[in-house]
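To assess whether the prediction recovers the assembly geometry, we first specified each molecular entity separately, as shown.
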Amino acid sequence: MFKFAHMADIHIGAHKDKRLIDLEIEAFNESIDICIKEGVKFIIIAGDFFHEPVPELEQVKKIIKKLIELSELNIPVYVVYGSHDKWGSQDSIIELLEAAKLIIKIYNPKTVDGKIRLEMHQDKETGVKLAGIPGKRGGNEIHIFERLDREHLENQDGLKIFVFHSGIEEFKPGFLKNAMDMQCIPINLFPKGFDYYAGGHIHKRDEFNIQNYQNIIFPGPSFIGWGWKDYADVSKGEKRGFYIVSCENNKIIENGIKFIEMNKIEGKFIEFDVTGNRAKQVNEEINKKLEEEDVDNKLVTIRIFGELLSGNKADIGTIAIRKLLTNKNAIAPQINDRKVTTKELRKIRMSSEDKLEIEEELFKESIINIKPESHSLQNEKGIIMAKELLKILKKSPKDSSGKNSTALQNKITRLSIEILGISDIMEE
Amino acid sequence: MNNKEIDFIGQVVSGDVAGILIREKNVANNIELGDLLIIDEDDNNSVILKVFDLSFGSQISPSNMELAAGLSLEGMGDEIDFYESNLRNYTLANAKAIIKITKEGVKIPKVLPKFFSKIRYATKEDLQFISEPPEDPVYLGNIRSGSKVLDDVPVYLNGTDFFTHHVLIPATTGRGKSNLVKTMLWSVLKLGKFGVLVLDAHDEYYGRHELGLKDHQNAKEKLRYYSSDAPVGSNTLLINIRTIAPEHFEGIVNFTEAQKQAIWLFSNTFRETWIERIVLSDVGEFEGLVHDTTLAVLQRKLRTSLGIYQKDGEIICDNPVFSLQGGESTLNGITGHLQDGRIVIIDTSKLADQTELLIGSMIASKVFYRYRASKGKGQLIDNCPISIIIEEAPRVLSNDQLQEAGENIYSTIAREGRKFKVGLIAITQLTSLIPKIILSNLNTKIILGNEMAAERRSIIDCAAQDLSEEDRTIGSLDKGEAIVSSVFTKFAIPIYTPLFEDIARRESKKDNKDDYELKLD
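The predicted structure of the complete assembly is given in tokenized form:
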């Protein structure tokens, strides 16, 4: 009998809060320690190991230390890129780790008769065969799936694992409300008959079985993830973690797929409905309630919603709320008041409360009104490009010491040019 | 036009507004039922007439005719022939003036054409005004005069009017209904501006093994196909039972008042897990409120309609479509595709009748209520019109069904959908089963051949134009031939829909290569 581990969406480097940064590394180290203790023979990371292609080196250094430990114990780490690990042709820390033989990329494509053939990687110790497809920005990995030589993979024998970093159309979670939110892959573009489908990208733990496709597993983020929804989910008590899978005689044993919960952080989710109250009254009530709450050393997420009787959203003192929570030793308090409206503002109320979703909604609206001539700026393509560009432009050109960094400025410019696809024009 | 250059084929000899009698010239090219004929008037105006009846005419008295036939049949007059036969025996065509073309435009004729006017066949030039494509044109076929097709005169309707004001396609088997719908949808794919939901009971539109809508060059962008047995690259139809709401059953599955109340009790209390709770008899806090027999009948009905039941305390779902795993965003996804102007084909060929209707009801409800909410927010203007194609429409729109099971989402859309840019395309062999109030809301009728007199009468009664004289014509419509009667056309237009395969072969994507430049790294 042997075991392997499956984790995904670790997003090292996603947090700005010092305590979260430390906890994130601790969580990773602990998960690796559990794997070692459980005697896993290999670890799969199904994309988004890092939050960006080149994260802060201080964090990378700590990760490398742990990977060296695994390497010394002859526990290979198999990875595919996630949509955060690599952007276009930009360098990625993953390549560096691969060159240092600390991880093994299992996406090995070649073109045969117009199809993409993936060479399977066989784990030396267990004989398990692995193949994978990386996640690409904007869900562009669908083009690989569409041209995939599935038959070649289906004809391989032995215990087989397919690693991917994509949403599956049929298993798209309900919170991804409509088709345009995310490019997903129809299940029948996957090769059939694998013993285990190790997924990443979807920040929600889930397990699926469907005819011809058994054990489709999404572990969700192993720590928090990133973004308002992930913070809120963890604050509400949603468990994060990874899977350990037990195998015997070239099969996954019955009930051998186990989720390992990581209780690294405790959360507190608090909601305030301000409907019918005046802004001043709201501040008093929130302060009173928070004074009573135990938020010590907890990840705190506060959602304020409803229609104010008078005053406006700006009158709600989110800075003071954050300060109060910080003084009470809350971790990285997140306050979301995007669903607070006044009667006057009702008309521009957005249907979403996630910052990224609001941005997307605004892009959708704008792209209809602007009607751009360039094909690459139209419809979904235009929205994806705008979102990517905004993400780059949001980055601070200052380094960790707070000084303007020419290198960072150049990086932002270079990435923006890449996203806009105007490298040739700029060179001219 | 110089009279000498024109091939006249007849002359007005008598009649009235209801029917103008034309004596046919003895030529090889006989006048047919449904032929479009032209009377050129002095001031460059012309009148289009449509033939609705044919009969014999003769200058010889009936008794003499009968005697002549007797002599011929009894072998007593082999040599007998009529003197100047062409002059004495002829065909009379009864035609109705359907439109007058003037410099100012086209009008409904209010006066009789000049007595003794000469008649000719309509030409492409006469009918040019029909082939002018409207905004967002939906192609239905080419104009037809009798059985002669004028290939250069395509017939289009404005897509928004056509889809949002509902369509009825009455047709018996084998008259070209699928071909018509496929051809129509092919042109919709070109536009990419209309969402159309096709509940495909025969899996005939996508073209899984033959030419179909999948072969359109815009298919990748504008067509989505869902099937419980999906071919590679299309979507497996999977609907999570937690996304099913009680209203989806309305008018589809018959529930008694007690059962309805129990359903709402479970749904209001347990929210999205209401079906699981019923199936598991997990009544929770309202122990005793729901009678055991009511619960047992509900479980049986849910098993019949969704294939869901419990075994040893575990929920089993043996319907390939409904599931406890996955399919959480299928309904939202489909609605989103429709909203983005895509055609969504749901292959229901392997599903039970009730399952098909239930799936249709779920999607139709989602679309209708989403669009109604959009109107409330003033955002409807940005939404693509959406149409829902429902085959064998009396299953949900018949008098009996509506009385027995109550109103359903289809009848609601038929009545109110137009206000919210949601339309229906109802296909049926039995128009007579659909209530008049619903038929009157279906503002375009594409009438294909029908042998059943009672059905023809129902169709004629609800047509947008007076088709009272077209009974015989409708009965004689051949495969591919149809009459389009719409509030958006000046007259009932005879059309012929070309073979879909010919269009698809001519226009389908030449190159299947994906234009995405894929980098393998």
